[in-house]
Amino acid sequence: MSNIICDTLESGHFYHIYNRGVNSCSVFIDEENYFFFLSRFKKYLSDFIEVYAYCLMPNHFHFLIRVKNLNSDSFVKVQNFDKALQENGLHSNDSLVSKQFAKLFSSYTQAFNKVQNRHGALFESPFKRKRIENDEYLRNLILYIHRNPIDLNQNFETYKFSSYKAIISDLRTDIKKQLVIERFDNMDNFIYLHKNPPKLNFNF
Fold this sequence. Notes:
InterPro entries: Transposase_17 (IPR002686), Transposase_17_sf (IPR036515). This protein has 204 residues and is an alpha+beta fold. Helices cover 36% and strands 16% of the residues.
Protein backbone atom coordinates (compact mmCIF):
# COMPACT_ATOMS: atom_id res chain seq x y z
CA MET A 1 0.00 0.00 0.00
CA SER A 2 1.38 3.38 -0.98
CA ASN A 3 -0.23 5.42 1.75
CA ILE A 4 -2.20 4.87 4.95
CA ILE A 5 -4.89 7.14 6.36
CA CYS A 6 -4.03 7.55 10.03
CA ASP A 7 -4.89 9.46 13.18
CA THR A 8 -1.50 9.79 14.83
CA LEU A 9 1.86 10.90 13.44
CA GLU A 10 4.52 8.42 14.47
CA SER A 11 8.24 9.04 14.83
CA GLY A 12 10.39 8.15 11.85
CA HIS A 13 7.57 8.00 9.27
CA PHE A 14 6.80 10.12 6.20
CA TYR A 15 3.41 11.80 5.98
CA HIS A 16 1.45 13.79 3.45
CA ILE A 17 -0.20 16.60 5.43
CA TYR A 18 -2.86 18.57 3.59
CA ASN A 19 -5.95 20.61 4.28
CA ARG A 20 -8.21 23.28 2.82
CA GLY A 21 -10.41 26.10 3.95
CA VAL A 22 -13.89 25.41 5.28
CA ASN A 23 -16.22 25.15 2.27
CA SER A 24 -13.08 25.63 0.14
CA CYS A 25 -12.80 29.25 1.31
CA SER A 26 -9.55 31.14 0.82
CA VAL A 27 -7.08 30.73 3.66
CA PHE A 28 -4.37 32.90 2.08
CA ILE A 29 -5.47 36.23 0.62
CA ASP A 30 -2.26 38.22 0.35
CA GLU A 31 1.47 37.55 0.54
CA GLU A 32 1.59 38.50 4.20
CA ASN A 33 -0.77 35.58 4.94
CA TYR A 34 1.55 33.09 3.26
CA PHE A 35 4.64 34.37 5.03
CA PHE A 36 2.87 34.47 8.40
CA PHE A 37 1.63 30.89 8.00
CA LEU A 38 5.15 29.69 7.20
CA SER A 39 6.56 31.55 10.21
CA ARG A 40 3.94 29.95 12.48
CA PHE A 41 4.68 26.58 10.89
CA LYS A 42 8.35 26.93 11.75
CA LYS A 43 7.60 28.09 15.30
CA TYR A 44 5.33 25.19 16.18
CA LEU A 45 6.78 22.33 14.13
CA SER A 46 10.48 22.77 13.33
CA ASP A 47 11.55 20.92 16.49
CA PHE A 48 9.39 17.93 15.64
CA ILE A 49 9.43 17.36 11.88
CA GLU A 50 11.55 17.57 8.73
CA VAL A 51 10.03 19.11 5.61
CA TYR A 52 10.70 17.50 2.23
CA ALA A 53 8.23 19.45 0.08
CA TYR A 54 5.40 21.92 0.43
CA CYS A 55 3.09 24.18 -1.53
CA LEU A 56 0.65 26.79 -0.26
CA MET A 57 -2.31 27.57 -2.51
CA PRO A 58 -5.04 30.17 -1.97
CA ASN A 59 -7.53 27.73 -0.44
CA HIS A 60 -5.40 24.73 0.56
CA PHE A 61 -1.89 23.48 1.25
CA HIS A 62 0.29 20.38 0.99
CA PHE A 63 3.30 19.32 3.06
CA LEU A 64 5.47 16.22 2.80
CA ILE A 65 7.06 15.72 6.19
CA ARG A 66 9.00 13.16 8.18
CA VAL A 67 8.45 13.04 11.93
CA LYS A 68 11.70 13.23 13.84
CA ASN A 69 12.61 10.49 16.30
CA LEU A 70 11.06 12.07 19.37
CA ASN A 71 12.03 11.33 22.93
CA SER A 72 11.11 12.62 26.36
CA ASP A 73 13.15 15.79 25.77
CA SER A 74 10.73 16.74 22.99
CA PHE A 75 7.93 17.26 25.46
CA VAL A 76 9.68 20.08 27.31
CA LYS A 77 9.53 22.12 24.11
CA VAL A 78 5.73 22.16 24.24
CA GLN A 79 4.48 25.15 26.20
CA ASN A 80 2.05 24.43 29.06
CA PHE A 81 2.49 20.71 28.60
CA ASP A 82 0.74 18.69 31.33
CA LYS A 83 3.17 15.94 32.28
CA ALA A 84 0.47 14.08 34.17
CA LEU A 85 -1.24 13.39 30.83
CA GLN A 86 1.94 12.48 28.96
CA GLU A 87 1.10 8.82 28.59
CA ASN A 88 -2.22 9.04 26.81
CA GLY A 89 -4.63 10.98 24.66
CA LEU A 90 -3.44 14.08 22.83
CA HIS A 91 -0.37 14.18 25.05
CA SER A 92 1.04 10.82 24.01
CA ASN A 93 4.25 10.69 22.00
CA ASP A 94 2.41 9.62 18.84
CA SER A 95 -0.03 12.54 19.16
CA LEU A 96 2.47 15.26 19.99
CA VAL A 97 3.00 16.36 16.39
CA SER A 98 -0.74 16.37 15.72
CA LYS A 99 -1.11 18.65 18.72
CA GLN A 100 1.52 21.00 17.32
CA PHE A 101 -0.33 21.15 14.00
CA ALA A 102 -3.51 22.01 15.90
CA LYS A 103 -1.66 24.86 17.60
CA LEU A 104 -0.45 26.10 14.22
CA PHE A 105 -3.97 26.17 12.76
CA SER A 106 -5.43 27.81 15.85
CA SER A 107 -2.75 30.51 15.95
CA TYR A 108 -3.05 31.27 12.24
CA THR A 109 -6.87 31.26 12.31
CA GLN A 110 -7.02 33.70 15.22
CA ALA A 111 -4.69 36.13 13.44
CA PHE A 112 -6.43 35.71 10.06
CA ASN A 113 -9.89 36.21 11.57
CA LYS A 114 -8.79 39.34 13.38
CA VAL A 115 -7.42 40.95 10.24
CA GLN A 116 -10.30 39.83 8.01
CA ASN A 117 -12.97 40.62 10.62
CA ARG A 118 -14.40 37.11 10.46
CA HIS A 119 -15.31 34.47 13.03
CA GLY A 120 -15.26 30.71 13.33
CA ALA A 121 -13.20 27.90 11.89
CA LEU A 122 -10.96 28.59 8.91
CA PHE A 123 -9.61 25.11 8.11
CA GLU A 124 -11.46 21.83 7.79
CA SER A 125 -11.11 19.60 10.82
CA PRO A 126 -9.47 17.25 11.34
CA PHE A 127 -6.59 18.03 9.01
CA LYS A 128 -5.71 15.28 6.54
CA ARG A 129 -2.70 13.08 7.07
CA LYS A 130 -1.55 9.98 5.16
CA ARG A 131 1.49 7.87 5.98
CA ILE A 132 3.74 7.22 2.99
CA GLU A 133 4.98 3.65 2.68
CA ASN A 134 6.28 3.51 -0.87
CA ASP A 135 9.29 5.28 -2.41
CA GLU A 136 7.67 5.67 -5.82
CA TYR A 137 4.59 7.21 -4.25
CA LEU A 138 6.82 9.56 -2.26
CA ARG A 139 8.67 10.74 -5.39
CA ASN A 140 5.43 11.24 -7.30
CA LEU A 141 3.95 13.11 -4.37
CA ILE A 142 6.86 15.56 -4.43
CA LEU A 143 6.18 16.13 -8.14
CA TYR A 144 2.47 16.57 -7.50
CA ILE A 145 3.00 19.05 -4.66
CA HIS A 146 5.43 21.19 -6.61
CA ARG A 147 3.26 21.21 -9.74
CA ASN A 148 0.14 22.41 -7.88
CA PRO A 149 0.51 26.03 -9.12
CA ILE A 150 -0.27 24.84 -12.65
CA ASP A 151 -3.90 24.68 -11.47
CA LEU A 152 -3.68 28.47 -11.03
CA ASN A 153 -2.18 28.85 -14.51
CA GLN A 154 1.08 29.79 -12.86
CA ASN A 155 4.60 28.58 -13.56
CA PHE A 156 5.50 26.08 -10.83
CA GLU A 157 9.20 26.83 -11.39
CA THR A 158 8.81 30.43 -10.25
CA TYR A 159 5.92 30.05 -7.80
CA LYS A 160 6.88 31.81 -4.59
CA PHE A 161 5.14 29.65 -2.01
CA SER A 162 6.45 26.17 -2.66
CA SER A 163 9.69 24.36 -1.89
CA TYR A 164 10.67 23.84 -5.55
CA LYS A 165 12.74 27.02 -5.87
CA ALA A 166 14.43 26.37 -2.53
CA ILE A 167 15.47 22.90 -3.61
CA ILE A 168 17.02 23.94 -6.92
CA SER A 169 18.64 27.03 -5.41
CA ASP A 170 22.12 27.22 -3.89
CA LEU A 171 20.75 29.28 -1.01
CA ARG A 172 20.41 27.84 2.48
CA THR A 173 17.05 26.25 3.23
CA ASP A 174 15.35 24.32 6.02
CA ILE A 175 13.94 21.93 3.41
CA LYS A 176 15.73 18.55 3.41
CA LYS A 177 17.09 19.41 0.00
CA GLN A 178 19.85 16.82 -0.33
CA LEU A 179 17.62 13.99 0.82
CA VAL A 180 14.98 15.03 -1.71
CA ILE A 181 17.50 15.12 -4.56
CA GLU A 182 18.77 11.68 -3.58
CA ARG A 183 15.26 10.34 -4.10
CA PHE A 184 15.58 11.46 -7.74
CA ASP A 185 19.23 10.33 -8.06
CA ASN A 186 20.49 13.80 -9.02
CA MET A 187 19.45 17.39 -9.63
CA ASP A 188 19.15 17.01 -13.39
CA ASN A 189 16.69 14.16 -13.02
CA PHE A 190 14.79 16.08 -10.33
CA ILE A 191 14.28 19.00 -12.72
CA TYR A 192 13.56 16.79 -15.75
CA LEU A 193 10.83 14.81 -13.97
CA HIS A 194 9.17 17.97 -12.75
CA LYS A 195 8.96 19.19 -16.32
CA ASN A 196 8.10 15.75 -17.73
CA PRO A 197 6.26 13.93 -14.94
CA PRO A 198 4.80 10.44 -15.12
CA LYS A 199 1.03 10.24 -14.89
CA LEU A 200 0.13 11.53 -11.43
CA ASN A 201 -3.16 10.29 -10.04
CA PHE A 202 -3.93 11.52 -6.53
CA ASN A 203 -7.43 11.66 -5.08
CA PHE A 204 -7.86 13.93 -2.07
